[in-house]
Amino acid sequence: MTKVAEQFVEVSAQKSFDISHRGIINYNIGKYDSAVEKGLSRLVNLDFAKKKSHSIKWKVMENLDKLLPEFESNFQRRGGKVIWANTVEEAQKEILQIIQKANAKTVIKSKSMVTEEIHINEFLESHGIESLESDLGEYIVQLLGQKPYHIVTPAMHLSKENIAELFHERFGTPIDATPEQLTQKARELLREKYLTADIGISGANFLIADSGSIAITENEGNARLTTTFPKIHIAVVGMEKMIPSISDLDLFWPMLSTHGTGQNLTVYNTILNGPRQKGETDGPEEMYVILLDNGRTELLAQKEQRQGLYCIRCGACLNGCPIYKNIGGHTYDTTYSGPIGSIITPHLKGMEDFKHLSYASSLCGKCSEVCPVKIDIHKMLLLNRKDSVKQGFNTKMEGWGWYFWKKGMLKRSLMDRFGGKFKNGILKRFFTKTWGDQRVLPDVKPKSFSKEWKENHPN
């Protein structure tokens, strides 16, 4: 077991028995479930919408080599610039060059998981550049020095009392401040930053090939301020976020908002086509889109597992997953947690270190059931497990164990030869630790099923 996997097991055990932590998560996910159930009931034919979403994303992956240049050409036609980044380091370097060329010192950021993936805040801070999160949840976890807990709701693990205490310590607000008062304080603190920031950095929910646009969906308005006030706007986007046409937003925007928060549509939905044009009164003077690979082409090459790239980051699979509800988001120690993170992280960050995530599942299938683009997530988890064995990342003991198990299962006489006492001894000797100290090993009966059957049915 790698060090990363050992840490995962250790932290999982701690979080599973943290009653306060589990109470907060389950309360927040419970509210989410109620909202989403109501939202989904308003869709006339949900299954058809899912199938259509899946079909469009399938076509995108089959034609990504054509759609990406189409997007680039259309975006550049309006004065935007596209930069291709193969790795985290390349993306960081390109962003730093843009900032240094502009002699910029301050950055304001809107919510973006892909910028978390490239660790942009820490990178810029190491070069003396202030990078401030403007999404309220992201701002709160940044103040705490933490990573986002959830794809959609970064501060899901905190109660309103936790946040009130944080604001009291940092900004002197009343210890019993209401959520409305805390939001107002954050607004006061962030407003000046929008006006004075040199650079705005965002992600994008979708890349639109036929119009050369990026689409951003949000509820707070911070993304609009981030992308319009600063003189330079940098959008960092995973190359898989492509959709063929602007008309596809008619499907994907409602599916994202309904599965993400239960809303018909999020409050602010923005389409950005490039820098400010002649006659326009707002918008940046320069706009860049950084298309990030970082392992995505390797996943794209896996014909069965490339479904992981269909994800629209709604967070539905996290909220439906019994493992996530027990161990929480930080335990995964990855940018993308929960079921979707478990299937893509081994391909983005290495199978050897992160294969354990594909085993952190009950395989109940809830994640596949709730996915708005019908990703067969629990099947992908099994394929990852298969890949990890093929690549030789299982232990020799595990390999021998499955070898003998297969031999026995294929030959009834071998299964019958050894009694329950011998089999129980094998279980206790080799499986007690992996079975876990919170569960009791099953007790094998003295006689096999076939022996008992023969005794009870002599004819």
Task: Describe the overall structure.
The protein is α/β, with parallel strands linked by helices. Among the domains are: 43-294, Rossmann fold, CATH 3.40.50; 412-456, no CATH class. It has 23 helices and ten strands. The chain has a six-stranded parallel β-sheet with strand order 1-10-7-4-2-3, sandwiched between helices. A four-stranded mixed β-sheet has the order 8-5-6-9, with helices on both faces. The relative contact order is 0.12. The mean pLDDT is 93.
Please identify, by name, the CATH architecture of the domain at 43-294.
3-Layer(aba) Sandwich
Q: How many H/I helical runs? A: 23
CATH class label of the domain at 43-294: Alpha Beta
CATH topology name of the domain at 43-294: Rossmann fold
Name the strands of the widest sheet in spatial order: 1-10-7-4-2-3
Radius of gyration: 25 Å
The profile of the biggest β sheet is:
6 strands, parallel
Please tell me the overall pLDDT: 93
Shape: globular
- The CATH superfamily title of the domain at 43-294: NagB/RpiA/CoA transferase-like
Low-confidence stretches: none
